[in-house]
Amino acid sequence: MEYIEGQPVETLPAFAEGAMNLADIGLGTEVVAVSDQFFAPAERMISADLPRFYPDRYDDHGKWMDGWESRRKRGVGHDWCVLRLGVAGYIHGFDIDTSFFTGNYPPGASIEACYLPESDPDDSTEWTMLAGPVTLGPSQHHLVAAQIPADKQDSAWTHVRLNILPDGGVARLVVYGSPSAELKEGDELNLAARELGARVVSWNDSHYGHPNKILMPTKGINMGDGWETRRRREPGNDWCLIELAAPGYIDEIVIDTAFFKGNFPDKCSLQAACMGKVGDEALVTQSMFWQELLSPQPLSADAEHKFVPDAGLQGPVTHLRLNIFPDGGISRVRVHGRVAAENS
């Protein structure tokens, strides 16, 4: 069935640059309560994929919409949805995306948050307003900076409540932020864990899948749950740059090609560097000259490959360049190591 795909945000505001989506379903975000979801379930609102519109798709409740949509409210009050964030963290701002909701978008919205690491909210929960009320329009992104109260500036959050005023549909909700987990010197962990703040900062191709998927905490569920490039018809190779969750010393690298059988890369290699405060764009050119951490290694279909870094790299690492030769798909990457001292 043919569909129209929504558009990503063209230019991210300052509060979203380098931030992660704390409400990414791939990190374990869940809908824990919702006032009404007659036309479309709230789980669709936290999908990591761009929203899609199918002109001729209907279900038993009416027009099928890729997002959360409540019924038309005929009384007082408003609809709301409570999410348990996949990662507890500091919230910087939001994207309330109403893509394809044209005559059924909410005219307004607000967002509250709370911190309940051991439970979910109930009627006695004290919520803190972080955004709104804000005016919404049809089929567009609404990028809203979080307004953190003065006495909550250092607070982390585990849940958010999206209030739509009074009813309607939202295609996607993105919660821009950073994880609140404290990483200490000597901690042994996956330095490339998305849930700890690692991120893919740049890549040359993502035709079949966004490279951020390779950092997700769970195993891939199918070939679409990974990074896959188009078939390369010219010299060279594909690559992506990874910023680690913290500076660290790398002990083992795991490259998982799960589900990639006729389209796995022939080989992969890694380069590494310890970078200061450098813009993402500047990293691309510099990465070509980073020291080799792992020389080109053969890969096989639908398998987990474990590698020990090549000897010779001195000092901690903050960034990696993953090269795949010449193209193909990877499901997951794990970088096991130890957190370095803050100023090492």
Characterise the protein shown here:
The chain has about 350 residues and is mainly β. The protein folds into 2 domains: about 180 residues, Jelly Rolls (Sandwich); about 150 residues, Galactose-binding domain-like (Jelly Rolls), CATH 2.60.120.260. Helix content is about 0%, strand content about 40%. Strands 2, 3, 8, 9, 10, 11, 12 and 14 form an 8-stranded antiparallel beta sheet that branches. The longest helix has 8 residues. The N and C termini lie far apart (about 55 Å). The model has no long low-confidence stretch (mean pLDDT about 95). It is an enzyme of class 3 (hydrolase). Keywords: Hydrolase, Purine metabolism. This is Probable allantoicase. One of its GO terms (biological process) is allantoin catabolic process. It catalyses: allantoate + H2O = (S)-ureidoglycolate + urea.
